[in-house]
Amino acid sequence: MRSRLPSIFVFALIFCALFLAHAPLLRLPYYWDEAGYYIPAAHDLLTTGSVIPQTIPSNAHPPLVMAYLALWWKLSGFTPAVTRTAMLLFAALALTAVFRIARSALNTEVAIAATLCTGLYPVFFAQSSMAHVDLAAAAFGLWGLALFLEDRRVASLIVFSAAVLAKETAIIVPAVLALWELGWRIFPRDSTIAPRQRPLWEPVALLVIPGAVLSAWFAYHYHRTGFVFGNPEYFRYNVSGTLHPVRIFLASLRRLWQATGYMNLFVLTIAGALAVMFPPRPEPRDAAEARPRIAPGVQAIFAVVILAHVSALSLIGGAVLARYMLTAVPLVIILMVSTLRRRVRGWWLVVLAVCAAFVFGLFANPPYRFAMEDNLAYRDYVLLHRGAADFLTAHYPRSRVLTAWPATDELGKPYLGYLKAAVPVVPVENFSVQPMVGAARDPSLFDVAYVFSTKYEPPSQPALLRWWERMQEKYFDHHRDLPPDVIARALGGRIVWHQERKGQWAAILVVDRAEDAKLHPPRSHGDKEDTKVSVDLRASVSPR
After folding, report:
1. Cα separation of 30 and 455, whole Å?
2. Is 94 in contact with 18 (CB distance < 8 Å)?
3. Residue 499's beta-bridge partner residues?
4. Which helix (H) or strand (E) holds 404?
5. Tell me, what's the pLDDT at 540?
6. Which end of the chain is more exposed for a tag (fewer CB within 10 A), N or C?
7. Handedness of CA 2, 331, 372, 362 (dihedral sign)
8. What are phi and psi of 417, to 5 degrees?
9. C-alpha 520, offset from chain centre
10. Among 64, 330, 297, 311, which residue's Cα sits nearest to residue 175?
C-alpha cells in the first residue's frame, strides 16, 4: 500500500494542474474527428446501448473510450465540459505513468522534469482534453510499460489488454516487448542490453493475450457489420491506400520528425544530443561518483518501442497524425532529460527553456502546414465555426447550406454544441478547385455557402518546404482551399460574413438567384465550360 500512495498523490496533483490549465477550453464545442466520429459513436452508445455506431459508418475502433464517455454522460450530463474533464483524467493517468517510468528508470528529479515537459508538449497538452482515443491508449500503454519494467507481468498484461480496447494500435507495445524478449532467446546473452531470462510463458502471454482480446473485438465487429477493420472507405484510406513505397518512405520521415522535432521538440533533442559531448557530472553528495544513467537494457526497450511506433505507423494511418505517437514521444523526452541531468551542470535551466519553447509552440503556429489539433489552433478553429453557426442561426436558419465535413456534422447535429437546431446541408468534399467547379454547375441546390480553411496554410514557406508540400498533396490527400473571394466569384455569390484567426478563416456566402441564373445555368458534367471554370479558379490562386 505504501508504494501505491505516491502514485495516487502524483495523479491527483497532476489532474488538478491539468484542470486549471484547461479550464478556458472545457466548454468548447467538439472539433474535427471529435465531431465527425468519436462523439457521435459515444452518443449512439448512450442512446441505443450499441457499441457499434448506428448513425455513422463504423471505423472499427474498440469501444472502451466511447463507453467511458457514455458512462460519464449518464452520470453527469451530456455536455462538452463533462467530456473534456473526463478526458483530462486519461491525461493525468498518462503523465503519472511517465513520472513512474522515469522515477523507476532513474530518479525523482528526472521524473518531475520529464513529466513537466510531457505535459507542456503542445501535442500532448492540446490532446489532453479532446475526445480522441489516442491519449487513452497512450495512458494504458505507458502504464503497461511501467508495470512491465517493474517486473509486475500479470498487472501489465491486464493493462495492455485494456489498452487494445482503447485503440487497436496499442497492440504495438506489448507485441514489441514480447518479441524483444523472445528474440534474445536465440542470441548470446552476454550483452548489456539483454533482458533477464524469464519463463517462456511470460513473453508468449504478452504477445497472445492482448492480441486475443483485440481479435475478439474484431470478430464481434465483423459479426455485426460484415467488416473486420471498419467500413471499406476507412480501410482504404488508412491501410490499403498507404502501402505505396514512396509514401511509406515519406511517412517514416514524418514519423521520425514527430518523434524527435515536431512542435519545438527539436529544442529538447538537440540539447540532449549536444549534452552527449560533455562528460558525466559528479553526484552532489559524492564527487567521486558520476551521475547515473538509465540502465542500457531499459534504454534499449525505450528505443525498440519508439522505433516500432515509427515503423508501424509509417505503414498505416492515412492522415499521419502526431497524436498517434503519444506513447512514444514521452520515452524520447525521458531519455533526453536523463541525458541532460547526467551531463549538464545547469540542466534544470535547459529543461525550463524547453518548457518555454513548448508553451510558445502552444500559441504560435509553426512555419509549415500542421494539424490544427496539435496546438491551440484547434481553439481558433472552434471559435470561428461557432461564430459562423451563430450567424447562420440568426440570419439563415432555414436556408440550405453548402459546406464540407466536418461543418456538415456541426450544422446537422446540434448535440455537438454549435447550434440548437439543425439546418439542412448540401455536402461537398472540400473547397479546392474541382468540388467548387461541381457546385458551380447548379447553385440552385443551395441558398448559402459556408466555406472555411480545412488546412492551416502558412503565410510563406522556403523552397524545400514547398517541395515537401507537393509530396504531401500527391501521397497524403492534402489539398489547397480556394480563398473565399474566389469561391464567391465561382458560385456567383457575395460574402456576408467573414472572420480570420491566426491564419484560419471562415466565410458565409449568399447566392443571388437572379444573377446566378444568368451567370451559371445548370450544365452537364461533360460540358466544356467546366474546364474553363476550373482553369479560371486555378488562375485566381497565386502560386506559392
Report:
1. 17
2. no
3. 506
4. strand 401-404
5. 52
6. N
7. positive
8. 100, 5
9. 41
10. 311
How many beta carbons lie within 10 A of that of residue 189, not counting itself?
Answer: 10
Could you tell me the three cell numbers for 26?
A: 472545457
Q: Is 49 helix (H, G, I), strand (E, B) or coil?
A: coil
- Beta-strand relationship, 401-404 and 448-452: parallel
**Helices 265-275, 245-260: inter-axial angle, 10-degree rounding:** 70
β-strand pairing of 282-283 with 286-290: antiparallel
> Phi/psi at 422 (nearest 5 deg)?
-65, 150
Place of cell 516487448: 177
DSSP, residue by residue, 252-318: HHHHHHHHHTGGGHHHHHHHHHHHTTSPPPEETTEEEEEPP---HHHHHHHHHHHHHHHHHHHHS-T
Question: Rounded to whole angstroms, how far apart are CA atoms 430 and 404?
Answer: 5
Cα–Cα distance for residue pair 58/60, rounded to 1 Å: 5
Backbone angles phi, psi at 362, to 5 degrees: -65, -35
3-state class percentages of the chain: helix first, strand second, coil last, to nearest 5: 65, 5, 30
pLDDT digits 0-9 by tens, 202-240: 999 999 999 999 999 999 999 999 999 888 888 888 887
pLDDT per residue as tens digits for the range 109-130: 999 999 999 999 999 999 999 9
